[in-house]
């Protein structure tokens, strides 16, 4: 019965060890709804500072939006090719890391999984970035975390936690290599970045039907293949979301579908508590509660429901490219947005490793204000 999920479709750099593998039966329902040109993620500042990315003191949501006066240059972002080269370099350097190709995008680009599996008995946390191709600072931050995991500073932590990182799940959208025009996208640089995959599908609406190769690779070769306890799905939203009268640096939300157990939802809320306690007190961090739907087609809901994984959505401010100028964030905030990703990943890795995630107080959720969208804003997720 259950056929090995890897059959045929994928090419591995190294075989999966098998010890974590579960053979869940996959169901592939037909026909997803294609969402054409719906709300896209906002155009976040394209530029990540490739340097240290230290947060400017005044940064809380105060970076200028793109307004035509500031160049937003996508050339400073990793390309899929340069990201792949960096991952392979780290794989060669880091004994604790294994790099796997879990599948290919619609246009044939490799989809990667960076694995740190020290002990099957450890709790496992997974990070997913860039389902939406125009939300790249999360990938830039995740790459930095992968580099950090190879340093002595993080070596001890790796003994007590398993980590899975899936960066840039939508590389065709990230590279603007898609079968629809991007003429009206506004970033400058070598390429445009778009929310959708090459088939013009929003892959974060495909987690039930699973029609797209990127989503099939994620479900068959990651979600079904490992026992994952926690997952953070990283996105960027618009530039104009605010709470308490101040623009947010990001917003978070647990699964809101009815199809998850209270235990799974509580785990998500505890994971959110770790993020909130680490990010909000920084000079640049200002978090709100994301206002999201209940559909299982979205990763935050569908992955929690199907696999019993405690998931958290993190929506950071601003997108890397878009056809709407009010979604585009200027480059100045990129340093703190990238730093926000790094802090989110590293603080949750530590909290899962030392077990503190299990005892977090989740009552802050009751008073966390929902973000309000100023005119022109659209949700992302
Ligand atoms: Zn998104």
Automatic annotation (TrEMBL):
Record-linked SMART domains: Zn_pept
Cited InterPro entries: Peptidase_M14
Cofactor(s) needed by this chain: Zn(2+)
Gene3D superfamilies given in the database record: Zn peptidases
UniProt keyword annotation of Zinc present: yes
Molecular function GO terms recorded: carboxypeptidase activity
Keywords: Carboxypeptidase, Hydrolase, Metalloprotease, Protease, Zinc
Residue ranges constituting the Peptidase M14 domain according to the UniProt record: 76-381
Pfam families for this protein: Peptidase_M14
Domain of life (superkingdom): Bacteria
Family: Belongs to the peptidase M14 family.
Protein name (database record): Carboxypeptidase
């Amino acid at each position: 019965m259950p056929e090995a999920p890897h059959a045929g479709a994928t090419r591995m750099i190294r075989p999966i060890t098998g010890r974590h593998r579960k053979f869940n039966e996959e169901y592939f329902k037909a026909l997803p709804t294609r969402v054409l040109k719906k709300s896209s993620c906002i155009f976040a500042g394209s530029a990540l500072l490739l340097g240290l990315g230290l947060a400017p003191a005044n940064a809380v949501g105060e970076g200028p939006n793109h307004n035509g006066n500031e160049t937003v240059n996508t050339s400073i972002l990793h390309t899929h090719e340069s990201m792949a080269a960096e991952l392979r370099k780290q794989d060669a350097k880091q004994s604790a890391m294994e790099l796997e190709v879990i599948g290919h995008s619609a246009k044939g680009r490799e989809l990667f999984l960076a694995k740190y599996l020290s002990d099957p008995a450890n709790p496992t946390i997974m990070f997913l970035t860039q389902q939406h191709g125009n939300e790249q600072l999360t990938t830039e931050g995740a790459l930095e975390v992968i580099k950090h995991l190879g340093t002595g500073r993080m070596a001890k932590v790796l003994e007590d936690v398993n980590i899975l990182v899936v960066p840039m799940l939508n590389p065709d959208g990230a590279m603007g290599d898609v079968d629809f025009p991007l003429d009206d996208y506004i970033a400058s640089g070598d390429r445009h970045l778009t929310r959708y995959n090459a088939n013009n599908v929003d892959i974060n609406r495909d987690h039930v039907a699973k029609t797209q190769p990127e989503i099939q690779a994620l479900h068959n070769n990651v979600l079904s293949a490992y026992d994952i306890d926690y997952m953070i799905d990283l996105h960027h939203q618009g530039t104009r979301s605010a709470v308490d009268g101040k623009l947010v640096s990001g917003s978070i939300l647990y699964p809101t579908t009815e199809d998850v157990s209270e235990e799974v939802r509580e785990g998500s809320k505890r994971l959110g508590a770790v993020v909130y306690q680490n990010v909000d007190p920084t000079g640049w961090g200002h978090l709100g509660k994301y206002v999201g739907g209940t559909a299982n087609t979205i990763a935050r809901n569908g992955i929690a429901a199907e696999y019993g994984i405690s998931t958290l959505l993190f929506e950071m401010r601003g997108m890397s490219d878009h056809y709407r100028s009010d979604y585009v964030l200027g480059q100045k905030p990129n340093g703190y947005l990238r730093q926000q990703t790094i802090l989110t990943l590293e603080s949750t890795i530590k909290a899962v490793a030392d077990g503190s995630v299990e005892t977090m107080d989740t009552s802050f959720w009751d008073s966390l204000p929902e973000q309000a969208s100023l005119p022109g804003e659209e949700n992302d997720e």
